[in-house]
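Request:
You are asked to prepare a plain-text protein record giving the amino acid sequence and the backbone structure tokens, at your earliest convenience.
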Amino acid sequence: MVVAFCIGLKVFVLWVVRARSDSQQGCVMDVSPDGTKFWTPSCDAAVRPFQGQTFPSLAHGIDFYRQYASLVGFDVRCSSLRRNREGVAVKDVLVCSREGFKQAVQSSVVVDAALDQAPVAPKRRRVSNRVGCRARLVLKMGDDGVFVVHFIELRHNHCLCSDVAKPFLRGNRSMDVQHQIFVLKCARANVGPNRSFRLAREFAGSYSNVGATCVNFKNLKRDLMAFIGTSDAHIVVKKYAKKVDDCPDYVFRYDVDSQDQLCRAFWTDPIAKENFSAFGEVVSFDATYGTNRYGMVLVPFTGVDNHKRGVTFAMGLISREDVDSYVWLLQQFKSAMGCVPSCTITDQDPSMRVAVPQVFDTTRHRFWAIDAQRLAQAKLNAECEGHFPLCQTPMLIEKHAAAVYTINVFYDVQAEVIAGSFSCRAVRSNVEGLVTRYEVEDDDGPVRTVSFDSGNDGVECTCNMFSRVLGVQRGGDSEVDVAIGEAWAEFFSCVTLASRSVDHVTKLNAALKDFNAFLLAENGPTVRASSSKKQLFESFCGASPDGQVNVRPPPISNNKGGGKRYKSSRELAIEKSGRRQRQCQTCEKYGHNSRTCPMRNVDV
């Protein structure tokens, strides 16, 4: 009796503690006269649905009830939906996810193989969270077209989720459009799903405020890779073909092999073509050792502008570093630019030695010493990092040049700044429409005329050493993307300034909630899922894999600089001589072990 009394007292104490914890978690437990326990969620009246409540649409009512369920700690699913003859939804029943019971399934029996009956594989036993909960909400369309809460049951026959488990509810870990866009933008910046989730956690403040789990982030990346599949080459071709349709000056060309696999690609834009027309006397191109997943080699065509900065004229991808690939690439460059450069600088690759004179027949082909260049560049970087040149004028442009340029280039820029500040002066100016002309006189030079066109912000000088043309633009982001970027900048600025005071953060949060409520009232709750996952993936990739696939992914190539290098017999001998050999424990000789020792089976 004493033992039974102690056990009963322990159970009673645990029940009291559980009841108190349930009350602290946001629900109140009641016991009916027949001993049935019910848990009623406790929350603010503003977020609790009630009978007779009206909503402008069915989506508004469903969204309100889902938010209420996520707040108090249970999931919601749609039980039944009734439509009229016109196909319009007139009644919807939303129930707790633990409503009903699991259907009884007969246990599978494995039949002996000696019998004539076919064997049945045993099924894995699965647990169920269905406990017959009667909590529900019935939405019914009224005569005026609005939806009314026709019936509601707030009580549950099970305990609700704790605050620790609420972030793992299905309603609290759904990937909304903002989550999907965030993951895709991180993927564009080469940030994986794990780091994206941790970055979202830093923005939100805690894992419970993210609204999704790390597994959801990984699943979205998995869906993206499944969406691309084996059509990545087809998507790239469609994406750049769309760029050519939008901008006729854009150039994109590709080539496939006998099996319709992408083997070569070349592209350039109008800005790069303008750079070549201005600074294309000397062109350098080299196959970099940074390859993609298929081992294709990137071949950039680069040069130097009037500020002694590197500029890119065109880009290419080739699967093999042979003469045919380089000849095809140089032909596309010549066709896109309309001429050949005066001087072409490459490394001492045998394929380039044959391809450059064959296509660029009028150019001067020169080679560089890549090791000496890398050593000089490393030495120059070290000198620039350890020294800061002195400025001779108080002008900000000189200080900016000291921070941007290397030391040798800065001295040239500094001389121009000093000459422009003290040696040049404007003699006269006149205005003709949108063009303003200034006559600039130098101490030891002729008078130059500088023209400024306010219509296109173009500047030209008669010395032909300076000009700025802003008429050609590279296809950038849309107006919506630019506005979103500005909004993000303003948002982070407001958060930074408001973080100094709790009242300011509270006001900012209230303003955001009011604007969110305004958007939901204007567009409806379906605006959160207005963009499907397929549309987001198409926007991320730039094209859709739908349609007939004419270009297959390239084969995995093995060019120089990739994979393992075959070692010569001399290198292998040197490595073997410096390696410590294993000593046999049986005969105490080197070159073998006890298991392969020839003295092992000899009778002693």
